[in-house]
Specification:
alpha/beta; Rossmann fold; 8-stranded mixed sheet; 15 helices; globular
Length: 380
């Protein structure tokens, strides 16, 4: 049983956190703030990178950054040892880990020490997914068994992840579907006048604007998108591709980009750029459930994405977006050309996409589901 206190204390464990911001970090930040508003005592434990303070309060949430220095194996061990100590000191009522790697190892060890319920959110399935990563190496099978047997509930964000857990023998009652969520009041559609005003403010060109938001990494296949864009520009000279984000591939992508490709870099708020755009594109070979995709749908953009991971749970082809084969550059180019040339189709699938988000993926729905899950676990 959880110790008696005025507020339920939840410690969330994640590899990285603010100011290092990716999809998982943004989800945790949004959920933590709303759960705090619902009366929960939320704390975050994460890695400490050089230049960052060991403790900080971010938007009312205490964030503890634990040692993680030296060569990779030593850094991982340091993180695990110091984080377990911190959880023992915090004595949470519930442990909530984000990812199956170090955060889950930390959380399983803490569960054994504290006898508290443990929730693990799996961030990604498929060839680059959590289960694939944790299962690789000499002791992969033992590590999978170590984690899978100890977790009380897995939060799954896609059917792909759910199927993988089923394959590993995780019972249905331990697989709870709670997708990523999006703030539908911040990521919202705008009329043409507001779009034009935003474009002027952001220094964006007139014309048809297709946007990608996220990390500029190999699995996003932005090199392929840039190659396709050069062909598209021959047919539609006023078509622009907007890349919002940073990553290890940025220098290479800049070196191969031609006219009509705009690199924005890292921005604190992607909402204005999405609202100002016409089309959202996601050409990845691996995704869990893309926050950028959900945000674009919420902004009523026409979306085109590869048919992978959690994307196929959200997007119904030709209804609220376009799905293309991730092994077919021809399909990606054909789909982009269709969206660029057909404003009525863009408008129709954009409206349907926004409705999908309101019905199934609003952050308020997601946080309510998480709060209910906490109550169920604490009642056992």
């Amino acid at each position: 049983m959880a110790e008696k206190r005025n507020m339920i204390r939840v410690v969330m464990v994640i590899q990285e956190y603010h100011p290092i911001i990716g999809g998982a970090e943004r989800q945790l930040a949004s959920q933590a703030a709303l759960l705090k508003n619902k009366g929960l005592d939320i704390h975050v434990v994460t890695r400490r990178w050089p230049g960052l303070s060991p403790f900080e309060v971010i938007n009312g949430i205490p964030v503890y950054r634990m040692l993680s220095w030296g060569p990779r194996p030593i850094a991982a061990i340091l993180f695990i040892i110091t984080a377990v100590w911190k959880l023992y000191w915090l004595k949470p009522d519930i442990i909530h880990a984000f990812e199956l790697l170090s955060p889950s190892t930390i959380s399983v060890l803490s569960k054994w020490l504290l006898h508290r319920p443990l929730i693990v959110k799996i961030l990604r399935g498929g060839v680059l997914g959590d289960l694939t990563k944790i299962g690789s190496g000499l002791f992969g099978k033992l590590r999978i068994r170590f984690v899978l047997n100890a977790v009380d509930v897995f939060v799954v964000i896609s059917n792909e992840i759910n199927d993988e857990l089923r394959t590993f023998g995780v019972e249905a009652e331990r697989r709870i579907f709670i997708p990523n969520g999006v703030d539908t009041t911040r990521f919202t559609p705008a009329d043409p006048l507001i779009k034009d005003t935003l474009r002027i403010k952001l220094g964006l060109p007139d014309g048809l604007l297709t946007i990608f938001t996220g990390r500029l990494e190999i699995e996003k296949r932005l090199d392929l998108l840039i190659f396709i864009w050069a062909k598209i520009r021959r047919h539609i000279p006023n078509a622009y591709l907007l890349l919002v984000g940073i990553g290890s591939q940025e220098a290479y992508l800049r070196s191969i980009a031609g006219e009509g490709v705009i690199f924005v870099g890292e921005v604190e708020d992607t909402a204005p750029y999405l609202i100002a755009s016409d089309i959202f594109v996601l050409p990845s070979i691996s995704e869990g459930l893309s926050n950028s995709l959900l945000e674009a749908l919420s902004c009523e953009l026409a979306v085109i994405a590869t048919s992978i991971g959690g994307t196929t749970d959200v997007v119904v082809n030709n209804v609220n977006g376009l799905l293309v084969n991730n092994e077919s550059p021809e399909e990606l180019m054909s789909g982009l050309m269709r969206l660029l040339n057909d404003s009525d189709f863009r408008r129709r699938i954009g409206v349907a996409g926004r409705q999908t988000i309101l019905e199934k993926y609003s952050m308020l729905r997601v946080v309510t589901a998480i709060r209910n899950l906490y109550s169920v676990l604490l009642s056992k």
